[in-house]
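Notes taken during the Thursday session

The instructor put the following on the board and asked us to keep it in front of us for the whole hour. The protein is D-2-hydroxyacid dehydrogenase. We were told not to look anything up and to reason only from what is written here. First, the residues (335 in total):
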Amino acid sequence: MIAPENPVLAVLCGADHPPDMAAIEDAAVVRYTDERGLADALAGADALFVYDFLSGAVPGAWHAADRLKWLHIASAGVDPVLFPGLRESDVVLTNSRGVFDDAIAEYVLGVVLSFAKDFARSLDLQRAGTWKHRETERIAGREVLVVGTGPIGRAIARMLRAAGMRVSGAGRRARVGDPDFGVVHESAALTRYLPEFDYVVAVAPLTDQTKGMFDAAAFAAMKPSARFVNVGRGELVVTSDLIAALQAGELAGAALDVFETEPLPAESPLWTMPDVLLSPHMSGDFIGWRRTLVEVFAGNFRRWLAGEPLWNVVDKRLGYVPSESQGGAGWATGN
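Then, after some discussion, the predicted structure tokens were revealed:
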């Protein structure tokens, strides 16, 4: 795909413009816009950079995309822009795969340790001025199932293995001998394997097949001593079923970074439930992540101008970058 001589780039960003865009502005006509002006910005645009990756405005403005050839989203998940109009078009979709892998893996290790070492209760007792000795759990040797075998899932598997945990995966195809997971189970048969695990980590992409995959049946299949961690997409989980499972003692706890509705509604029971850890969709957001997202886009922008193959091309049928495709590692090394 070769960029036109004087490309027009629309950038969906709201009030906060992406940093370090000077080199891109020198090479293209850049139209910064919020959701209200997106249709006007798309008219005649050759490319779209969805910097505001939580926005759902692209489908509503798609009718104005009369010349678009390439859409890049500043996230690993592409569900906000993967609607029928884009799927059926010739527009190439790329994402920011590779930016958040290690940060999310560190988050998962952190919440696993928090559960095992009872940090939340220690903090409560500290604030109450109460000295109460307890015994805590070891994580070495505990069984973990990571549901989602893409780059983030693999980073999680490597980090948890390094801490002594025994990690398996769940993905579209069952297999053995995987370099990061060893055994990968078929996610379509998830409830068959869930009883084996002490921790279940959801990091699958959101597709028609994965939406609502963690429902009442899935939670009922888990050990009562198991903990559930969601760093994937909120819609992977039927929230009412999760709340019911926690209330019934079918799970020992949950750590949730993503939710069906964000922000989490104030009336949600999750806010005050014991053994539930909540964070506001920030597990991958390390200091400097916004600049890194622009670096990824800038690397792909340079390739686009030169007519070179783009990094992180999403298979629009699958909803993610296939594992066998080239990832985004090149942007970090300048290759």
